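subagent[fold] <- orchestrator: predict structure for attached chain, return tokens only, no commentary.
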Amino acid sequence: MKKFALVGFLAVVLVAGCELFPSISWEDIRGEWDFPNTKFNDSTITTIHLSLMDPAEGESEYRIDLSWNNSENFYYGDGTLSNNIFTGHYQVGGDPDTTEYSITVTFSLSNETLKAVFSGTGPLNGLVLEHGTLGTQ
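subagent[fold] -> orchestrator:
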């Protein structure tokens, strides 16, 4: 019984001493990220690049730009950031008159690699990018 209590106590101390959901600031993820080839919607997408940019001067919304297959597919959007969650809208391509979709992107960092999980409406819904490496800013 004493061994069980000791093991339980040690488990509580270990869990209390580490952060289960570490906070991520914009400064941690801002920049130019490249991701390895990823399977998405029954295809492999390549040369994936995600830009996480500060709001433009006088603006309050953050910007994301995502492209893959040598910019053959291009998405851009604006929104807000709360901890590690970007919430906003995006459009396909460079035409401002295209349909606008809602999006939530949840970011996590592990060993300096970025993971981005996209959920919402439109073509980016369900996309999961992992093992992103930060390029030059």
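orchestrator: received. Logging for downstream: The chain has one domain: 25-134. Strands lie at 31-35, 38-40, 43-45, 48-53, 62-68, 73-82, 85-92, 100-110, 113-120, 128-134.
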